[in-house]
Write a structure and sequence with these properties.
This protein is mainly beta. The chain has two domains: 1-19 and 241-277, no CATH class; 21-231, Jelly Rolls (Sandwich), CATH 2.60.120. The protein is 6% helix and 35% strand. The protein has two helices and 18 strands. The protein has helices spanning 222-231, 249-254, and strands at residues 2-3, 30-34, 45-46, 55-58, 62-65, 73-78, 83-87, 98-105, 112-117, 126-131, 134-139, 142-147, 157-164, 167-172, 175-181, 192-194, 207-216, 261-262. Strands 2, 5, 6, 8, 13, 14, 15 and 17 form an eight-stranded antiparallel β-sheet that branches. A hairpin with a 2-residue loop joins β10 and β11. 42% of the residues are buried.
């Protein structure tokens, strides 16, 4: 097995092929990050900047230009068949002490799932979405939180939850809107989707725009949720490395691509990201 990390890094500088500043506090424990960046959009795959958990576009899911401050674009969902399939990767087998957040813009007051790992066979999972124009969070087959400000027809909002030991806290735009308790039973067969759930016959496709979907393998604190909310409109200062096309000429001309070497120690998940070419 080969380790694709660069040999030409004697000073321990960050890997220039990595789009994420992994030492940034908001990236600590981050499992996946689907963000519509220039080098990662336009095709049938939504690249994960952190863990290489690429999603496959399905139905009428379509890339659109930026309408959210600090963003480069987003993925549009039609509420009928558009979705992004993420499969059943072990990295998304999270059942307690994890967090999921996304930026959304929806005109529809109906229930629509933004991120979901739920299945009609076996133990029920979890869902993050919009229902009755408000934040909608399900866990273990039950509605846990349906609260907060009106989300439909009011522009972009950052929604999500932090699960700390089975206690779910829902957030909208950096502020807590409610909490509830529910324990999840592992179900490795349940696939994860963006824009729908895998519950057959009740997929509840999302209508609107989705961008910047993040999954952490830990429960974010209230202060971290607020910092995460502020980071998006500011363009993710310090958390997102600049694409190679934006490097100063002296760096671009001096950079030598990574060379393979025998594996000495296991690289962190996603260390060798294909995003920068």
């Amino acid at each position: 097995m080969l380790d694709p990390r660069p040999l030409d890094d004697p000073f321990g500088w960050p890997d220039p092929t990595d789009p994420v500043a992994r030492d940034h506090p908001l990236n600590a424990g981050k499992v996946a990050w689907w963000l519509a960046v220039p080098e990662g959009t336009g095709g049938s795959t939504w690249v994960d900047l952190v863990g290489n958990l690429a999603g496959t576009l399905a139905g009428a899911a379509a890339w659109q230009g930026a309408t959210r401050p600090g963003a480069w674009g987003h993925l549009a969902f039609n509420g009928a068949n558009a979705a992004v399939g993420l499969g059943t990767p072990p990295a998304l087998e999270l059942y307690q002490n994890f967090s999921v957040f996304a930026w959304i813009n929806t005109p529809s007051a109906g229930t629509g799932y933004v991120v979901a790992k739920d299945f009609s066979t076996g133990a029920r999972g979890w869902c993050l979405g919009v229902g009755g124009s408000k934040l909608w969070i399900e866990g273990a087959g039950s509605l846990l939180i349906n609260a907060g400000p009106t989300l439909t027809g009011t522009g972009w909002h950052r929604i999500g939850f932090a699960n700390a030991g089975g206690t779910w806290t829902g957030y909208v735009d950096g502020a807590s809107v409610g909490a509830a308790g529910a324990a999840l039973t592992p179900n490795a067969a349940a696939p994860t989707y963006l824009g729908r759930r895998a519950y057959v016959g009740a997929e509840s496709y999302f209508s609107g725009a989705i961008d910047d979907v993040d999954v952490w393998g830990r429960a974010l604190s209230a202060a971290e949720v607020l910092a995460d909310y502020a980071a998006g409109p500011a363009g993710y200062p310090g958390a997102l490395a600049r694409p190679r096309s934006a490097w100063p000429p002296w760096i671009a001309s001096a950079y030598r691509p990574p060379r393979a070497r025998p594996l000495v120690a296991a690289a962190p998940a996603g260390q060798a990201s294909p995003w920068f070419n």
